[in-house]
Amino acid sequence: MDDVPVLDEGALQRLDEWGGAKLRRQMARLYLENARRRLDQIDDALADGDDLGGVEMAAHSLKSSAANVGLMRVSVLAARVEDAAAKTEGAELPALRERLQAAAAEGAVALNALLEAEDA
Amino acid sequence: MARIAVVEDNADNRLLVDALLGHIHEIVEFETGADAVAGLESSDPDLILLDISLPGMDGTEVLAWVRAHEALGETPVVALTAHAMAGDREKYLALGFDEYVTKPIVDEAVLFSAIDRCLNRTS
User: Fold this and answer.
1) Which residues in chain B have Cβ-Cβ distances shorter than 8 Å to A60?
2) Model's pTM, two decimal places?
3) CB B20 within 8 A of CB B49
4) Which residue in chain B has the smallest CA separation from A82?
């Protein structure tokens, strides 16, 4: 996982090209909202007697949202969670979930730091 | 300008599609498959951009509904999906999607080309 960047700034540059700083900021804000919701859904689905379909759907959404703003480590780990849930490999999920939570926290710090640096 | 219906549950993906296409086409948005089924007939789109993983009624079910609909059945439907494993393209095209575009959108020209091919076929 160390070879996957926390933040791929190329994705943010693409958003700039498509809609300027306004689009980039809106996408970052929507990602942060969606990530919180989807991580909660993954937790709830795991707590709810291993609702693997629920885990798969929430992880799929997070994979896509994270990649939109260049949070590649979150996206790759969300893809692994999605894949494990789809293959009903529930035993792997608690450890993957921990790694995903950590990557999401790391990614939020990186994204917020970038946005705050622009505001300064 | 065409009227494009976007069926997508993630607000960020809807925003992105609007940023890419909203100045070229009229965009009509639906957040769920059920919303799309309720509103597609009256919005009468020229093309549908359809996510696969939707809560409740998923994209393949929406596609089946569109194909069975008397007025909408011939409408081009583009799968816009983060299901991008080997074999997924063939799988979704075989189900009756006209085009298949993966998310995240990295090269917007791929999306534009898929839309143009669909609209040129039906014009």
Assistant:
1) 53, 82-83
2) 0.94
3) no
4) B83
